[in-house]
C-alpha cells in the first residue's frame, strides 16, 4: 500500500501537458479544485470528470498508475461516505435499527466521494507532469509579487517542493524498514485495527532517524554547492509563456464558463 502513494512523484514524459508552463498548471489546478466545490449536481461533476479524463489522455500518464494513488485513501473515502449517509435527515430509504439511510444522505455522500476522488486525481496530475525544480520555479514566480510585503517567496517555494519531493523517498524508507522488521518476525497484517496500529509504532523511531539523516545529507549538499537564502539566483532555463500555455488557459476558461453556466441555468 505504501508504494501505491503517487503524490509527489514525477512521471517522465514529453506530452503537451508535461511541456506546459508550471505556473499555468499550478493556477489551473487551484481553480479546478475551487470549481469542484462550486459544483452542486451530478451534471457538473460529469463535466469536471470529462475534463480531467481528457487531460489524463493528453498527458499519456497510465490511468492504472493514477488510480493506484487512490488505494491509500480508500479508508478515508469510505469513512466519508458512511458518515454522510447516516448523519443527514430527510426521506428515509432504509432503516438499520437506530440508523436511517436517507435519500439526501446518499446524494450528499455521493457528491463528497466524487469530489474527493476528482480532487486527489487532479492534484496528483500536477506533480506527475511537473518536475520538482520546475514546480519550485513556478511557485516562486507566482509568489514573487508578495516579496514587497516581506514574503520569502523563494524559501517558501523551496520548502514546499522539498516536502513534495521527499514523500516518495520517505515512503520507500518506510517500506524498507517494514520489510526488515518482517524478516525479523514482526507482524503488521494480523489482528484488528488497533493491534495493527500498535505494530507500526516501532517503525517510527528508525523512520525519524532516517528522515533526519536524509535532511542532513540534503543540507550538506546544498551548502557544498554554495546555496544560500536571500541571494538573487539565476536560472539556466527561464520561464516564458508559449502559445500552448495560452491555449491551455483559454480552454480552461471555457471549462470554467461551462461550469458556471451549468450552475446558473440548472
UniProtKB/TrEMBL annotation:
Transmembrane segments: 30-58, 70-88, 108-128, 197-215, 246-265
Pfam family, any one: CbiQ
CDD domains from the UniProt entry: EcfT (cd16914)
Compartments where located: Cell membrane
Subunit structure: Forms a stable energy-coupling factor (ECF) transporter complex composed of 2 membrane-embedded substrate-binding proteins (S component), 2 ATP-binding proteins (A component) and 2 transmembrane proteins (T component).
Keyword hit for DNA repair: no
Keywords: Cell membrane, Membrane, Transmembrane, Transmembrane helix, Transport
Similarity field: Belongs to the energy-coupling factor EcfT family.
Signal sequence segment: none
GO CC annotation, single: plasma membrane
Described function: Transmembrane (T) component of an energy-coupling factor (ECF) ABC-transporter complex. Unlike classic ABC transporters this ECF transporter provides the energy necessary to transport a number of different substrates.
HAMAP family (UniProt xref): EcfT (MF_01461)
Keyword Transmembrane helix appears in the UniProt entry: yes
Membrane topology, from the record: Multi-pass membrane protein
Descriptive protein name: Energy-coupling factor transporter transmembrane protein EcfT
One term of GO molecular function: transmembrane transporter activity
Amino acid at each position: 500500500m505504501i508504494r501505491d502513494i503517487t503524490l509527489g512523484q514525477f512521471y517522465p514524459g514529453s506530452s503537451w501537458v508535461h511541456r506546459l508552463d508550471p505556473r499555468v498548471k499550478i493556477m489551473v489546478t487551484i481553480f479546478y479544485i475551487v470549481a469542484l466545490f462550486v459544483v452542486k449536481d451530478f451534471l457538473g461533476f460529469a463535466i469536471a470528470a470529462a475534463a480531467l479524463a481528457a487531460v489524463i489522455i493528453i498527458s499519456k500518464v497510465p490511468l492504472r498508475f493514477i488510480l493506484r494513488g487512490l488505494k491509500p485513501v480508500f479508508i478515508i473515502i469510505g469513512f466519508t461516505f458512511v458518515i454522510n449517509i447516516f448523519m443527514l435527515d430527510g426521506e428515509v430509504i432504509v432503516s438499520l435499527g437506530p440508523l436511517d439511510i436517507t435519500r439526501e444522505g446518499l446524494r450528499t455522500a455521493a457528491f463528497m466521494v466524487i469530489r474527493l476522488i476528482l480532487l486527489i486525481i487532479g492534484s496528483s496530475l500536477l506533480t506527475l507532469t511537473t518536475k520538482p525544480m520546475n514546480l519550485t520555479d513556478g511557485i516562486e514566480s507566482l509568489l514573487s509579487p508578495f516579496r514587497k510585503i516581506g514574503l520569502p517567496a523563494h524559501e517558501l517555494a523551496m520548502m514546499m517542493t522539498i516536502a513534495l519531493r521527499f514523500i516518495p523517498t520517505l515512503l520507500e524508507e518506510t517500506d524498507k524498514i517494514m520489510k526488515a522488521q518482517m524478516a525479523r518476525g514482526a507482524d503488521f497484517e494480523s489482528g484488528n485495527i488497533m493491534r495493527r496500529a500498535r505494530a507500526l509504532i516501532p517503525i517510527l523511531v528508525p523512520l525519524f532517524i532516517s528522515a533526519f539523516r536524509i535532511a542532513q545529507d540534503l543540507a550538506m549538499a546544498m551548502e557544498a554547492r554554495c546555496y544560500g537564502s536571500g541571494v538573487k539566483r539565476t536560472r539556466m532555463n527561464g520561464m516564458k509563456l508559449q502559445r500552448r500555455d495560452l491555449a491551455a488557459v483559454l480552454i480552461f476558461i471555457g471549462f470554467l464558463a461551462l461550469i458556471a453556466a451549468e450552475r446558473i441555468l440548472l
